[in-house]
Amino acid sequence: MAERDANQQVPEGPDDDTERAQTPHLDESVRRIGAAGRATLDSALDTGRALRRLVANDLALARSAMGRALAWVAVAIVFGASAWLLVMGMATAFLHSLGLSWLAGFAICAALNLAVTALAAWRVSVFFDYAGMHATRRQFSRLGVGDESAKPDEGTDPPSCPTPPMPASTAGTGTP
């Protein structure tokens, strides 16, 4: 049985002619790669166009929603202000029923309104200060971009940024 296995030839693979027929020439391979590259580029461009349409439509929706939201905010402000006026009128009448004069009732309600107005004005100024992007301005001024104190024709160099301190474990090695 061992003799039969040794004499029997096992096919090692496809013929060289069949293999060459299946493998395209170099110019055909280059054409296929070019076609695949064009297909990939077309797909990327189509994806970019779809993303641009999505962003444009999303911005249009946001713009429309913002307008409608502002309209409803105006309605809420009008009705909230009229309700507040009615509450202050009732508070003034209640204070008068307690024995205070009309002038004293109006003065107490006015003082309450002025205190709330001052609190709101203070909070608005704080939030507008937050909106000033001070940290971003500091970083830009460190880089010399948008420095409002120096004029561009004065020829001043941007301020040098200090080197950050090295951690104690790597201070002498020269590696960060």
UniProtKB/TrEMBL annotation:
TM ranges: 69-96, 102-128
Keywords noted in UniProt: Membrane, Transmembrane, Transmembrane helix
Region (Disordered): 1-27, 144-176
Protein name, entry field: Phage holin family protein
